[in-house]
Structures are given as C-alpha cells and as structure tokens.
Design a protein that fits this description.
single chain; 336 residues; 2 domains; six-stranded antiparallel beta sheet
Length: 336
C-alpha cells in the first residue's frame, strides 16, 4: 500500500564554521588554577617512569637519577593547546543589537545549555528575497556578530621535549590542565562575519532559528618552564603567550513540512483502559456512558499500489465499525 504522511522535521539550511582573528594573551600557570602531570621516559627503550608521583624524583634505567634539587634544563620541542567550555564570559551581555543580518538586528537572543538561539520573525519580513521565495529557495544574507565581552575557557596545554641534568638526558611530557572550577579569562573584542548565511522564508507562521555556539583553536608561543618553591617539591609553572583563535559554529534550522511514504505504527492509546472500564467493547450495546466514542473516528484513506505509479484508483476507506478500544488486538480479548 502507498501511504502519504506529512511530518514536521527540523531541516538544516546552513551549517557554518566562521573563524575570527587570533587573540594573543600572556599567561602564567599557577598550582592554584592548574593541575600538572609530568612524565619522564627513555625514548630508546620506550619505558615510562613516573615523575611527580614517585617521591619527586626520577630513577633512570642506568643508575642515574633526576632530583628536584638539581638544575634541570627543559628543551621544549612541541606544544599543543586544547580548549574546553569556551564561551563568552557573560552570555547575558550578548544582545540582539550585537547580531545583525544584512545590517538589521535580529529579533531576540536566548541562551540555553551553552547554545545561543536567535529568533527571526520580524527580521524575515524585511530581508526575504521575493525572487527566492517564488522559487522556494532560501535567501542568502550577510551575518555580523560582535562580542564586546571577555572570553572564558578551560585549557589543557601539552608540552613535549627533552630535559637534561646531572649528565643525563630524558624525554618528558608536561600537561597543564585547568582545574574544574577555574576558568582563564581572555580579554578581547571579537567579530565574526560571513556572507554565506542561508535563511528560508517563514511558512505557516514558522520562521527560521539561528543556533550557534563558540569554540576555539590555539597554540602556545615562547614557553618557559620553571620550578616553583613548594612544600610538595614537585610544582612547575609555565609561562608564555597563548594564541586563541575563536570560532563560531552556526546552524540555521526551521521546522519544515515533509511528505513521506510511510505507514503509521498502531500503538495503543495511553488512556485506552478507561474505555474498557466504561463499557464492554465487544457488545453492540452503546449505552449512555460519556466515554463512549463510537462513530466519531477519523477515517484513514488507503490506496492501491498502482496509485503510486501515477494511476489513482478509487479510494477505499479502512473499515471502522468497531469501538476505538477494539482496534488493538491482543490487549482486550476482542474478536476481529
């Protein structure tokens, strides 16, 4: 059989990643804000040995040792930066005037679950292209987003290289990670711009929604590792220039009506039990009970297979001569 069903689905009309200009910030990690993990290992034998977890010393494979009282030299060969929870420091400060489409401010900005949602009801009445609407196509527009606030983020910095001292040399890996409740602050005025925003027209009162969030890529320049005097005897500080490249991840969605060839799965109604309690569904006695729904059912139309090939035959209605409570076999003992 060929069934014509119509459903509303969220269709994605734009899926963009919009970068902004890099931001350079001087940063120094501290034990109060960063967790550190330092590992020494011998590259030739690929045997990892602990650093700070083993009484603050490293015992090598050749009878030598690194003691934190020694003067160690760190030769950093590579750095890696990972951002998590990158967002505007005060999301409520981002207003509709900060987001424009073709120079016109959007209607409203809402913030929920680390995502921003922009409504465009009034906006679409002003920017929709008539030629595009007649063709059923979205309108291409220019989006400009300006953030005049600071950024906040948690960051993980990974450094790899060689450390030498006392006549021996070992490979090392140092990880500096922001503590869970400690964000770093990145001051900057940032602008995102794209000419490739696609906005579908408003249909049946449903206008498109602009959804976006922020992320970032980064690098670490001129890193310097220093030992910090501490009772723990195993704390380092890392200083240098953090380069942050903010990125806007944006989607335009709209609830769109789709026509599909599918068959509805009959699932028992949640309140079907009230019908069984109200009357005997297998008798012809209708009674006067207020829950009786006989003869008020919507008729589902069914077509022959060749209708799908362009030849429409006479419609045949699915028989509905039973009570609504008798439509689901195996649950109420009714005969079919």
């Amino acid at each position: 059989m060929c069934y014509d069903s119509m459903v509303y689905l969220n269709k994605v009309y734009s899926n963009l990643e919009v970068p902004s200009c890099p931001i350079v910030t001087e940063i120094t990690t501290t034990p109060e804000c960063f967790e550190q993990q330092l590992v020494f290992f011998d590259e030739r034998e690929d045997k990892h040995n602990c650093g700070c977890g083993c009484h603050h010393s490293f015992y090598g494979n050749f009878g030598s040792s690194f003691n934190w009282g020694d003067n160690l030299t760190y030769n950093i060969e590579s750095t890696e930066v990972l951002f998590t929870d990158f967002d505007i420091a005060s999301p409520e400060n981002l207003t509709a005037e900060d987001i424009t489409v073709d120079g016109i401010p959007v209607d409203e900005v809402d913030y929920f679950n680390e995502r921003y949602m922009v409504s465009t009801n009034e906006l679409m009445t002003r920017i929709s292209d008539c030629a595009c609407m007649k063709k059923g196509l979205p309108t291409r527009a220019y989006l400009l987003l300006t953030n005049n606030c600071n950024w906040k983020a948690r960051v993980t910095i990974v450094l790899r290289g060689e450390v030498s001292g006392c006549g021996i040399c070992r490979r090392f890996k140092l990880i500096m990670k922001s503590k869970d409740n400690k964000n770093i602050c990145i001051p900057a005025n940032t602008t995102f711009a794209t000419p490739s925003l696609c906005l579908p027209c408003t249909t049946n009162g449903i206008s498109p929604i602009i959804n976006f969030s922020f992320t970032a890529n980064g690098t670490f320049l001129n890193p310097v590792i220093q030992k910090t005097p501490s009772d723990k005897g195993c704390e380092l500080t890392l200083s240098g220039m953090l380069v942050t490249e903010p990125e806007l991840r944006l989607q335009v969605t709209r609830q769109t009506l789709f026509k599909t060839d599918s068959e509805v799965v009959n699932v028992p109604c949640d309140d079907i039990e009230k019908c069984k309690r109200a009357f005997d569904c297998c008798t012809d006695d209708e009674g006067d009970h207020p829950y009786h729904l006989k003869d008020r059912c919507c008729v589902q139309e069914e077509y022959h297979d060749d209708e799908c090939c362009g030849q429409r035959n006479e419609k045949q209605a699915v028989p509905h001569d039973r009570d609504i409570a008798c439509q689901f076999n195996g649950y109420n003992g009714c005969r079919f």
